Amino acid sequence: MSDDSKLRAYLFTVEIDGIETARFQKCEGLEAETYVYEVEEGGLNHNTRKFRGRTRFPNLILEKGITENDSLFNWFKETCLENKKLERKNGSVALKDTEGNEVKRWNFFRAFPCRWIGPKLVTNLGSDFAVERIGIAHEGVEVDNDLAEVSYGIATPVGKTWNDAQYVTSVWGKRNSFIVDNGEKTLSGHNGMDFAAPQGTRINAVKSGTVSKVENDEKNIHGYGKYIVITHEDGTSTLYAHQSKIIVYEGETVEAGEKIGEVGKTGKVTGPHLHLGYDGNKNGKFTNSEQLDDPAKLLYSDGN
Ligand SMILES: [Zn+2]
């Protein structure tokens, strides 16, 4: 049941030469492995030396698909069944969410279909072909995602360059909002940094890590609106609030500078901006400012 809903939640579409040809519920093989070989060198007897060999790309395996037009099937038929010619093509696999928004794209090169498993392969060779499984051999795959500016492993939180992140409208600890408690008006601290940017500006992972939370509720109790949390390898985490659009999913690994969403004004805000939170104390809590840290410590560190 949970597996089923997962399959329904995301969809892989296959484009050949820029034209969408099919949709699949599952995709495997978006990986690369570089062969490492060892040499036992004379004169150095206590360990071996390692060298980088060639990079190997496993076949793409697409499962449970529906063809949009004939071109994917014809390509397979001509290559595998009719043994006509080996027609290599470039293409891409795009991951889309339930609303049809593109989440991620991988490009593959010099590819040809090498395997097809369909329920009625022999009797039905026409269009509207229900695809069970297709294997595509290729000579390279790359993530179509240009990274934003990164220095010392830390990326600009908004836009493409650090210049785009210069409009800091609220810094850590600055008292910028009122809290009314028992009829008494007090000032509250600010547990992050605000970067003003136009609606739709790209938001980047400031540091590599794994997406540990995705909250799509615009009116959640924290006032963060649509936000995500990325947990980094050292146990610290960063939070990206008030987004208009989130393009990553829980469990996904992200690189520093990779686009994770877009600037918006969801939650408790007066205008579009990114609120960046930083948990340098490894608490994983973003509701209590006392347990958080100043994001500037992370952003403007020189890697030491
Ligand atoms: Zn803020």
TrEMBL record:
Any one GO MF annotation of this record: metalloendopeptidase activity
Highest taxon, organism lineage: Bacteria
Matches recorded under InterPro entries: Cell_wall_metabolism_enzyme, CHP02241, Dup_hybrid_motif, M23ase_b-sheet_dom, Phage_T4_Gp19
Domain M23ase beta-sheet core: 189-280
Record region (Disordered): 279-304
Descriptive protein name: M23ase beta-sheet core domain-containing protein
Species: Treponema succinifaciens (strain ATCC 33096 / DSM 2489 / 6091)
